[in-house]
Design a protein that fits this description.
The chain is of the alpha+beta class. It has a single domain, classed as Aminopeptidase (3-Layer(aba) Sandwich), CATH 3.40.630.30. The protein is built from five helices and five strands, in the order βαααβββαβα. The chain has a five-stranded mixed beta sheet with strand order 1-2-3-4-5, sandwiched between helices. The longest helix is centred in the middle third of the chain and has 15 residues.
Length: 162
């Protein structure tokens, strides 16, 4: 039996359907409908996001069906003339995990980052998310850091306690 046809690439500015599908995939794989499926951005917002050269939506399709993706940002540094790439979200459908899709997504981002002369790509993983931690350790160097969310005014919705 032949391997399924896999395509991994960056979404273009006009691929709003692909970006909406990526958002839905994140809602599913992270089990976080509140963050990814409510208050969806309009077409103009998504087009602007995708058009920004410092934003990256990398997607993996198997036979034209979205099975994985990542969203990342380029951060231009001030202390040196260099940039870093931050992977904000990376998700693969449960049925397609352990098949190299996440690594393929990161490799496409690495090629883009190299073309931008980025210094490093970094990503966070939650304590207890052993598959993600194992993947990232296989690709890079682990650093122990603390992450803090600092609210901005009253507009930021607080997660429900539960």
């Amino acid at each position: 039996m032949a391997e399924p046809e896999m395509t991994v690439r960056r979404l273009a500015a006009n691929e709003l359907t692909g970006m909406r599908a990526l958002n839905a995939l994140f809602a599913d794989v992270f089990e976080d409908e509140a963050a990814y499926a409510h208050q969806r951005p309009d077409d103009r917002y998504l087009r602007d996001w995708l058009s920004n050269p410092n934003h990256f939506a990398i997607v993996a399709f198997e036979h034209e069906k979205l099975v994985g993706g990542l969203a990342a940002y380029r951060l231009q540094k001030f202390e040196q003339a260099r940039s870093e790439i931050y992977i904000y979200d990376l998700g693969v459908k449960l049925t397609h995990r352990r098949r190299g899709i996440a690594t393929a997504l990161i490799n496409v981002l690495k090629n883009i980052a190299a073309g931008l002369d980025a210094w490093v790509i970094y990503v966070q993983a939650d304590h207890g998310d052993e598959p993600a931690i194992a993947l990232y350790e296989s690709l890079g160097e682990r650093e122990e850091v603390l992450h803090f969310d600092i609210p901005v005014g009253t507009k930021r919705a607080r997660p429900a306690e539960g």
